[in-house]
Design goal:
The complex is a heterodimer of chains A (282) and B (284). Chain A is of the alpha/beta class and 282 residues long. In chain A, 24% of the residues lie in helices and 24% in strands. The chains are: A alpha/beta (282), B mainly alpha (284).
């Protein structure tokens, strides 16, 4: 435990030259219907990739497959050069913000601590080094000043910072974010994205599922846009064009600029009738 | 006609020492159940399983009644019934909505089955409904040993998976993503819950198990939010309710259960008031 980086617990121990995430020929079926196939994606260290698309397009399933919680219908996924598996400490997962019950019996630091010892079976005795690790993680997400307050009394933005702190416990080389900004106000969206961007600058690859590209538009290197059984992959300028999205959806779609914001008009909200089968809500 | 109830029925401390010696094993069983019930209650609250506890207890009652009718061990019957219900709820009711409908279906079925079995049992009519409302005084010594042993198994199981269980109870999605075997953890938890419910059925009765498996945790959560303080307080409240209830019952000629449920309720009321007063002070 000599690593002094925020949240660091062990050196990354993998070669940092290859891609942090490598997906080859991935395919996803739902029932006997093919959602998409032939997906190749490499995420480099320090790369920020947004995943866009209507609900039911398989974004969440893609994340779950990378986490090893679900099987793809075809293809392979490697993280840091190794086949994906359940509970891979190289991956940090940031879920959607949901308010915790006000009477949740945990303080802010306990939520973060679950990232450190939450998978540990055996008598729940405190281990040396745990507290220092939790303190570092709280510092990394700017949560020191409410570390000892009950989580149920914190704001949505504060709770979400703690979830990121939890996800950073093992200094992951890949961050998977599933709509981490939904339900947050603008100031908190900025705070959260800047923490995630800080991790990216320190070398983590980021895969960021979202339905609104605007809060992260300035940070995104590439966009994976999945819709209507197809996908496009490219820089924001390449992908976010009326012509490209119209071709992708197979129906007229317009990308409009309103100041520095982008609005996609005409895109169907959900994919077919099975939109919510896997809880993939946009 | 107005029922006659004298203060002597509720409290009378004549021959208290002798009675205490007679009931020392019941007291130990009550103490252990109070502590373990209080601890598991914290997870029951966090996992939204209060209604499920009630469902499991009714099937446990049915199992015990079946054993009474067919001549098996009542403890084994209650454990079998509780485990069947707990595992069914655990496997079929991962989502809260599914779970509530499963419990809603199981509960009257179990209760009805139990009442049917009991009404077929001949003789000893006075004790017939002890399983529903508590009968710790009439539990035999070897059976008390079993109940204590089962409570200790539940305690050990809970402690050994404390962290993963807490993670899964708070945020199953993140827990799974980090590698907690959430399905196994949930299922093992339901088995532990089934065992402790079966123990409670013998001590305070199938209809009243919530007084030891839900109320103490709910009370603790009113006045604290620490990850150690809440379980410790909850265990303490459970202990006070169970042991206090039995000790008070010794001084009267009424059943044990109402004393336990009343103490448990008073603790909750006290915590609720404390919480309200604190909130008011903070606002002023």
């Amino acid at each position: 435990m000599s690593n002094s980086e925020p949240g660091g617990s062990e050196p990354s121990g993998s070669d940092s030259s290859g891609p942090v995430l490598s997906i080859r020929d991935a395919a996803l079926h739902r029932g006997d219907r093919e959602l998409w196939s032939g997906l190749d994606l490499d995420v480099a260290h320090g790369e920020f990739i947004a995943v866009l698309g209507p609900s039911g397009s398989g974004k969440t399933t893609l994340l779950r497959s990378i986490l090893g919680l679900q099987q793809l219908s075809g293809g392979s996924i490697r993280v840091d050069g190794k086949s994906t598996r359940r509970g891979n400490p190289r991956i940090g997962y940031v879920p959607q913000q949901r308010m915790l019950a006000p009477d949740t019996s945990m303080r802010a630091r306990d939520l973060v601590a679950l990232g450190v010892h939450g998978t540990r079976f055996g008598f729940p005795l405190p281990r040396t080094g745990d507290r220092a690790r939790v303190d570092r993680l709280l510092g990394a997400v700017g949560a020191e000043h409410y570390a000892d307050r009950p989580v149920g009394l914190l704001s949505g933005g504060e709770q979400q910072r703690l979830r990121i702190g939890q996800a950073l416990a093992d200094k992951p080389s890949l961050l998977l974010c599933d709509e981490p900004l939904s339900g947050l106000d603008l100031a908190n969206q900025r705070g959260i994205t800047s923490i995630i961007d800080q991790q990216r600058r320190e070398g983590a690859g980021v895969l960021f599922v979202t339905h609104d590209i605007n809060p992260i538009l300035g940070l995104v290197d590439r966009i994976l846009y999945i819709a209507a059984g197809r996908f496009v992959l490219g820089t924001p300028d390449e992908v976010l064009q009326s012509r490209v999205l119209t071709e992708l959806y197979g129906t007229p779609v317009f990308v409009l600029r309103a100041g520095d914001r982008l609005v996609v008009v005409g895109a169907p909200d959900a994919e077919g009738a099975h939109a919510h089968e896997d809880g993939d809500a946009a | 006609m107005i029922p006659q109830l004298n203060w002597g029925d509720i409290f009378s401390f004549q021959d208290y020492g002798e009675l205490l010696a007679l009931l020392s094993n019941s007291l130990i069983a009550g103490a252990v159940l109070g502590i373990v019930g209080g601890l598991i209650g914290v997870f029951v609250m966090q996992r939204d399983l209060a209604f499920a506890v009630h469902g499991v207890s009714e099937l446990s009652f049915a199992g015990a009644a079946a054993a009474l009718l067919f001549g098996g061990s009542v403890v084994v019957g209650s454990v079998a019934g509780a485990l069947v219900a707990a595992i069914l709820i655990g496997v079929l009711g991962a989502k809260a909505r599914d779970r509530n409908s499963i419990v809603g279906v199981l509960m009257p079925f179990g209760l009805g089955l139990g009442i049917l079995f009991l009404s077929l049992v001949e003789g000893r009519t006075a004790n017939r409904f002890g399983l529903l409302t508590g009968q710790i005084v009439s539990v035999s010594n070897p059976d008390l040993g079993w109940l204590i042993g089962m409570s200790l198994v539940v305690l050990l199981g809970m402690l050994l998976m404390w962290h993963p269980l807490r993670f899964d109870s708070l945020d199953p999605e993140s827990a799974a993503a980090r590698g907690v075997p959430t399905r196994t953890v949930s299922l093992v938890f339901m088995v532990l819950l089934g065992l402790i419910v079966a123990v409670s059925v013998h001590i305070i009765g199938a209809l009243l198990v919530m007084a030891l498996l839900v109320t103490p945790a709910a009370a603790a959560m009113r006045i604290s939010s620490g990850p150690v303080a809440v379980p410790v307080l909850s265990a303490l409240f459970g202990f006070v309710a169970a042991v206090g209830g039995i000790l008070l019952a010794l001084a009267g000629s009424l059943p044990v259960s109402p004393y336990i449920t009343t103490v448990s309720f008073l603790i909750y009321a006290g915590c609720w008031l404390t919480h309200r007063l604190k909130a008011r002070v903070r606002r002023v």
